[in-house]
Design goal:
about 120 residues; Glutaredoxin; about 15% strand
C-alpha cells in the first residue's frame, strides 16, 4: 500500500501524486490518497510519519505559514511532541506531499523524490 498525504491545491503535491500514480509500483487498489486538510492526521499518525521519515520534526513543518509564527513555533525550546501536537491541531502546517510505502516515507519536495520510496 502506498499512501500519499496530499493537498490538491498544491502544484508540487499534484506533480508527486501523478508520479506515484504513473509508477509501476502502484496497482489499482494499492494507492491511498489522504487529503490531510479534510482528514487531518491524529498525533499518533504524525509520530509514526516522523519515525518513517527519519528527519527532524521541523522538516515536517511548513514554517512559511501564518500559523507557524502565530503559534510561536520558531521557539527552539519546543519539544518534538509540542511541534507535532501543533501540526495535529493545524494540519495546514504539515509539509506536503508525503509519500509512504511500507516502512519508507519521503517528503516529496521536489516531487521527483517520491520515486525514492516506490
Amino acid at each position: 500500500m502506498i499512501t500519499v498525504y496530499h493537498n490538491p491545491r498544491c502544484s508540487k503535491s499534484r506533480e508527486a501524486l501523478a508520479l506515484v500514480e504513473g509508477s509501476s509500483a502502484v496497482g489499482g487498489s494499492d494507492l491511498q490518497i489522504i487529503e490531510y486538510l479534510k482528514t487531518p492526521p491524529k498525533l499518533a499518525e504524525l509520530k509514526r510519519l516522523h519515525t518513517l521519515l527519519d528527519v527532524p520534526v521541523r522538516e515536517m513543518i511548513r514554517s512559511n505559514e501564518a500559523e507557524y509564527a502565530a503559534l510561536g513555533l520558531a521557539d527552539t525550546a519546543l519539544t518534538d511532541d509540542a511541534l507535532l501536537a501543533a501540526v495535529a491541531e493545524h494540519p495546514k502546517l504539515l509539509q506536503r506531499p508525503i509519500v509512504v510505502n511500507g516502512d519508507k516515507a519521503v517528503i516529496a519536495r521536489p516531487p521527483e523524490l517520491a520515486s525514492s520510496v516506490l
